[in-house]
Amino acid sequence: MADENTENETAETVDAPEATDVEATDAPDAEAAQDEAPAGPDPSLSPVERRAWYRQRQQQEAKPQRTPQDRQAERDAARKAKAVARRRRRLQEREKRVAAGKREGTPPVEREPGRPQVRQGLVVSAKGDKTLAVQIAHAKRHRKYKKIVRHTTKLYAHDEENTAGVGDTVRIESSRPMSRTKRWRLVDIVERAK
């Protein structure tokens, strides 16, 4: 029995150093694993706790307490800086427009009292006797959104000699009502259809 006890003790003493060697070799790996572990917060955290976790990692310096007057002064300073930049940009844009020169656009329609309105459009139908359906396209910039908005209007015009055909570009002018829908008459044919 005594021999068995001594053998067990020697076995334990022999095994003990080996165990410490293994623990010593595993210890750096465990430390490295712990260093890599805090890559992100625990998924079980609530959103508030998760934000607090990120805040702790950032280690930012706390901003000093400011009075409402200090905050208002900062906002005023930011507004003034933006106003200066806006003024500078608008001056640059104005100078660019002046340098580009005056753009040529559609001249305004001359208006006189008693003078008939004149429109130019495309004949889309000439089926009716002495009647043309003229489509007039409008393009106008939207006042608020500044987008070019296009729309068309169909007017019925009186063509006494049935001279215009589909596809012709014609000029019409306002006249007395000739039927329920006809309030225009053909002045001339600007361009014949090809």
Explain what this protein looks like in three dimensions:
With 194 residues, the protein is an alpha+beta fold. The protein has a domain at 118-191: Nucleic acid-binding proteins (OB fold (Dihydrolipoamide Acetyltransferase, E2P)). It contains three helices and five strands. It has helices at residues 2-36, 47-58, 68-100, and strands spanning 118-125, 131-141, 148-158, 169-174, 182-191. A five-stranded mixed barrel has the order 1-2-3-5-4. The longest helix has 35 residues, at 2-36. The radius of gyration is 44 Å and the shape is elongated. The N and C termini lie far apart (124 Å). Mean pLDDT is 82; it is low at 13-25.
Largest β-sheet summary: 5 strands, mixed, barrel
Uncertain regions spanning at least 5 consecutive residues: 13-25
Helix content: 40-55%
Could you name the CATH topology of the domain at 118-191?
A: OB fold (Dihydrolipoamide Acetyltransferase, E2P)
Derived structural class: alpha+beta
Q: Give me the CATH architecture of the domain at 118-191, please.
A: Beta Barrel
Distance from N terminus to C terminus (CA atoms, Å) equals 124 Å
Mean pLDDT: 82
Q: List how many beta strands DSSP finds.
A: 5
Oligomer: single chain
Order of helices and strands: HHHEEEEE
What overall form do the CA principal axes indicate? elongated
Radius of gyration: 44 Å
Question: Could you name the CATH class of the domain at 118-191?
Answer: Mainly Beta
The fourth-level CATH homologous superfamily of the domain at 118-191 is Nucleic acid-binding proteins
Which range does the strand content fall in? 15-25%
Q: What topology, given as strand order, has the largest sheet?
A: 1-2-3-5-4
Q: How many helices does DSSP assign?
A: 3
